[in-house]
Amino acid sequence: MAKVLPRSHSRAAAVQALYQALVNGQKLAKDELDFVTAENSEKMDKKYFTILVEGVSKEIDTLDAELAFAVDRNLSEIDPVESSVLRLAVYEFMHRPEVPYRVVLNEAVELAKSFGGEKGHKYVNGVLDKMGSKLREVEYKASKARRK
Known about the structure:
Order of helices and strands: HHHHHHHH
CATH superfamily: NusB-like
Radius of gyration: 15 Å
Helix content: over 70%
Largest sheet: none
Number of strands: 0
Shape: globular
Number of domains: 1
Distance between the termini: 28 Å
Number of helices: 8
CATH architecture: Orthogonal Bundle
Structural class: mainly alpha
Strand content: under 5%
């Protein structure tokens, strides 16, 4: 069994926090963030968790506009888990260039498998494959070339 890295725990906690805010229709409060991080506090990179949650929260309109390129419907019609995972991954594509394209994609698919519906990970994979071609064009093309 593979060791789960601190940033993976950070992403999982971030998806939980973003999901909670989405279904409650509210901005995240500090006590909610503390609750989400308490369970994973020993395992995760808290700084990265904060970067992700604050970044996605601040840029949600921009992220949604970018996602419109690849989704087949309004984000409000997508399962809240999957939309939270998609927003997080697109944020990383756009603002965390040190995280490789394949890492962002694989982590998002795993999060969708863990938290989402039965086939949600397939949808997430398809959307992020399109987003990768747009937001990480060089890495995307190199990844596709290696697979041939």
